[in-house]
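Students often ask why inverse folding is considered easier than folding. One informal answer: many sequences map to the same fold, so there is more than one right answer. In these notes we will look at a single instance of the problem. The structure comes first.
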């Protein structure tokens, strides 16, 4: 034994092997520190180092990080063979490593990508030696996924943080059957909270600085800011109705300023049109140096949590038949005693084929139904025909929902073609957004209701449009008249259309719908759809 030599050799120079005791440029996954084998993610909010080793994964550690974090820029180490170099295109300056390649100076005929088989080319970033990889920390794909998720909320987290109590806790899985509504709520409420937290984090992380603004004034005399919003693949997609905050930090001639507005349109030139709520103090003589933030609202998630709570504590929120169906209980099939129409089609719609007629007939005879059909099979026409016959049965108004505004608009247009009186209820943040069914929207009908009794409301509305605000007494009177008019129009409608979460709008607080249709139901989460459940009294239909 005395002849054995355990002295470290020079091959290990540059490595730190203690748990968590890595140099700054060590791979954040495995700890490899060889400068020739590591690269830095060059995104300003990241700046972490990763190596070109695969370890126990299908791709190199740097590629794993770039893909999961949706980053695209890297920089070589200053002590690497090529020195501290940001990889970018020689001609255009593009830094997306997934698009970059090289052409040999000798041939100048064919090129090759810098990334091949999910690794950087070895002449650019070396692969750690077999001995280096054996001495490195072994990390699994599952651990990589978890640490990447943890970095979204804690950029300085380490792999040791995954071992802390509570970090790795998984929520209770969704079940096929539930004992009662309390168990149902206890499963879905934490999932809604997790989704809300993630959505908030994603939106608040999308702030952009150094934005150039082009100022304009809309037809309603409100100030509109036009700008190009830089975006990457990992960012949220802007849509009309989104709420944004425009900020200016100030300079020698201008004080700091900020205002909230909502996106009214996206131009063909990829400009965002942001209509500001307040026009006072807007620095219209300044065009550069602005910042844009997403404004996160918890309304949708609060309504879903409220629906779960109501379902758990209020036994009258849905019928017993639907209650047991939602919980996955075995329920004996019931039939609704309704006089079936002689003709299952509806005026203003194309004639139904045999399968569509069968679907309409079954829906009208059952308390709850699910219709499935591939794209292009006429589900929207079938849904409109179902709503038409529901409305003609004399059981009150019909509520029509869908998870997306586009689907609601399409269905509202089809239903209106049958001659029924349709009201399209939009979120207040979307009232300034143009819509193909503008004439059906509640806010449009309120503005254009031409009766002598509503002349005072129209005068106050015109005064508010011209001045931008009303006195406190006029504002109070205006809101009262507007609420009364909205309720009057909604109560006179045959069908009310809104998004699933929009069914929780305070303007529908005292409405009770005995018949509900939810379009594209499988494109929404169960809690999202469940907000409409509280409106179900007797008959419901879900289409996907």
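Output (designed amino acids):
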């Amino acid at each position: 034994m005395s002849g054995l030599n355990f002295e470290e050799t020079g091959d290990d120079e540059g490595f730190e092997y203690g748990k968590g005791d890595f140099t700054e440029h060590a791979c954040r996954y495995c700890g490899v520190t060889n400068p020739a084998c590591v690269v830095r993610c060059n995104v300003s909010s990241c700046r972490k180092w990763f190596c070109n080793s695969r370890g126990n994964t299908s791709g190199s550690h740097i590629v794993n990080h770039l893909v999961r974090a949706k980053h695209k820029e890297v920089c070589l180490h200053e002590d690497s063979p090529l020195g501290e170099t940001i990889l970018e295109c020689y001609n255009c300056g593009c830094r997306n490593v997934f698009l970059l390649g090289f052409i040999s100076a000798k041939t100048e005929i064919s090129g090759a990508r810098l990334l091949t088989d999910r690794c950087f080319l070895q002449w650019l970033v070396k692969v750690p030696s077999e001995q280096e990889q054996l001495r490195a920390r072994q990390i699994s794909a599952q651990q990589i996924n978890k640490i990447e998720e943890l970095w979204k909320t804690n950029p300085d987290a380490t792999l040791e943080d995954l071992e802390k109590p509570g970090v790795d806790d998984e929520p209770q899985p969704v079940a096929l059957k539930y004992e009662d509504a309390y168990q149902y709520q206890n499963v879905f409420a934490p999932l809604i909270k997790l989704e809300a937290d993630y959505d908030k984090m994603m939106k608040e992380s999308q702030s952009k600085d150094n934005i150039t603004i082009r100022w304009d004034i809309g037809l309603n005399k409100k100030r509109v800011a036009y700008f190009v919003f830089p975006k990457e693949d990992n960012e949220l997609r802007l849509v009309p109705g989104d709420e944004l905050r425009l900020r200016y930090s100030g300079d020698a001639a201008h004080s700091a300023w900020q205002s909230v507005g909502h996106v009214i349109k996206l131009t063909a030139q990829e400009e965002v049109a942001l209509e500001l709520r307040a026009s006072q103090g807007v620095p219209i003589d300044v065009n550069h140096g602005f910042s844009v933030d997403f404004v996160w609202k918890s309304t949708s998630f609060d309504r879903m949590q409220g629906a779960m709570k109501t379902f758990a504590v209020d036994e009258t929120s849905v019928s017993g038949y639907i209650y047991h169906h939602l919980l996955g209980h075995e329920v004996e099939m019931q039939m609704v005693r309704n006089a079936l129409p002689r003709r299952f089609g509806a005026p203003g719609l194309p004639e139904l084929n045999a399968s569509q007629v069968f679907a309409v007939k079954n829906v009208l005879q059952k308390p709850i139904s699910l219709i499935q059909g591939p794209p292009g099979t006429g589900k929207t026409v079938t849904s409109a025909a179902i709503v038409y016959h529901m409305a003609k049965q004399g059981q009150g108004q019909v509520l029509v929902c869908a998870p997306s505004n586009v689907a609601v608009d399409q269905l509202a247009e089809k239903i209106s073609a049958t001659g029924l009186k349709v009201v399209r209820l939009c979120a207040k943040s979307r009232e300034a957004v143009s819509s193909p069914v503008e004439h059906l929207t509640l806010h449009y009908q309120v503005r254009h209701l031409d009766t002598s009794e509503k002349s005072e409301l129209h005068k106050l509305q015109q005064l508010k449009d011209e001045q931008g605000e009303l006195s406190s007494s006029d504002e109070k009177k205006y809101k009262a008249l507007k609420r009364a008019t909205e309720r009057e129009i909604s109560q006179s409608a045959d069908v009310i259309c809104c998004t699933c979460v929009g069914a929780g709008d305070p303007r529908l607080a005292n409405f009770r719908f005995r018949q509900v249709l939810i379009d594209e139901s499988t494109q929404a989460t169960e809690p999202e759809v469940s907000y409409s459940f509280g409106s179900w009294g007797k008959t419901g239909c879900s289409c996907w």
